[in-house]
Amino acid sequence: MTSNGRERIGLTSDAPSGSGAVAPRLALDIRDLSVVYRTPLGDVRAVDGVSLALRAGEVVGLAGESGSGKSTLAYGACRLLRAPALITSGSVIYQGRRAAEAVEILNLRREELRRLRWREIAIVFQSAMNALNPVLNVRDQLLDVIRAHLTLSRDEAAEKVGSLLDLVGIPRSRLRSYPHELSGGMRQRVMIAMALATDPEVVIMDEPTTALDVVVQRDIIAQIVELKEHLGFSILFITHDLSLLLELADRIAVMYAGQLVEIATADDIHHGAAHPYTKGLLNSFPSLRGPRRELAGIPGVPPDLYRPPPGCRFLPRCSYGTKACTGIDMKLAPVVTSSTLEHLTACPFVLPDTPVPKKPRSGGALENPGLSEADDFSHQAGPAIRVTSDPTSGEGSVAAGQLYIGPEGFDGEEMADVKGEPSPGRLGT
User: Fold this and answer.
1) Would you say 158 and 176 are in contact if contact means Cβ atoms under 8 Å apart?
2) Residue 424 has what pLDDT?
3) Structure letter (DSSP) for residue 102
4) How far apart are CA 279 and CA 275, in angstroms?
5) In this prediction, what percent of the chain has a pLDDT beyond 70?
6) Which of 3, 8, 7 is nearest to 30 (CA)?
7) Which pairs count as long-range contacts for 167-176, CB under 8 Å and 24+ apart, including other chains?
8) CB contact at 8 A, 132 and 184
9) Which of 6-10, 111-115, 407-411 has the highest mean pLDDT?
10) What is the mean pLDDT of the chain?
11) Residue 265 β-bridge partners
12) SS3 59
């Protein structure tokens, strides 16, 4: 079934899951999704032609630094984005246990979306203190979710609320507590309980352990794994911490500047990363075993997505880069040296056994035998990329920068003054 002309298919309440399938069923299939933020200066391409599949019962990790488009991808797939965000192209197909047939989320009407969200696809949002309602206690917030999506009596709903707290390891005495009376870890567990209240097929976790100490973080991750094995839902786990995904995820997708640059199993990412950006992320945290090694950061900053550079968007920061990188097509393709076709990379030049190049030389430029001074791309990506150097260490450092989005209160009606040709699209809701 193609993305063009796909008919709208409704959800049924208790449709049986398909039988006889040899391969695991795709619970969520994102195809060529593109999302822009429309500004008075033009379209900022936050997500650019991303395809990502989530199988039933699978944990897929989505990694990348802040601003790479991870949350925009997830919220765009659920149509939770607000103006000035626009979905300009793509398809998002959901196939769950209770769905009679595949559902094209981008074609659903508002009422159909309401039935799908949280009942079939739930989200654990970033920053639980901000996601929870500060004027409602835990009991009332959980009851709101249950009453909106399930038909239960008062006693059944009350018992389910208590069982949800049991599920995430919080005493039932905390049902009357308000968010400010809970610790950060307990608030995060309440958010997980809320996401699981309607037995969803897919749970999107957007950095659920951010700002928590490592002990609480490990407890929550262990609890997520236990709940997933017990209830059988699929997880799209979004984080900037690649080391966390190496322990948790079945597969890992690495995102940079609005595009996926590598997808592989956690083991292949750990021991055979192919894309230079993935290699840089792996070298940015210490190893708990084996010989000591020096940590290495990634110099520079991500490109300006209003006017992204040609070819590979990582090139201005890449120590492997050559002139050929300006003309490559940023499409995922199998790694030729990998034993599996599921290991995909957007870099056709770097293989898992490629040695790590030398450190950045003084001045922030990247030292690579394939580049001459005239070919040095460190300073050719416009004003959004500004690399300076630390005179004491010789290491490249990043100068702070800001992305201008537009005046406050911009509602999309002033687009007649936009420079260039904005991409056609639709609001996320």
Assistant:
1) no
2) 55
3) -
4) 6
5) 77
6) 3
7) 167/193, 167/196, 167/227, 168/192, 168/193, 168/223, 168/227, 169/223, 174/138, 175/137, 175/138, 175/139, 176/137, 176/138, 176/139
8) no
9) 111-115
10) 80
11) 251
12) strand
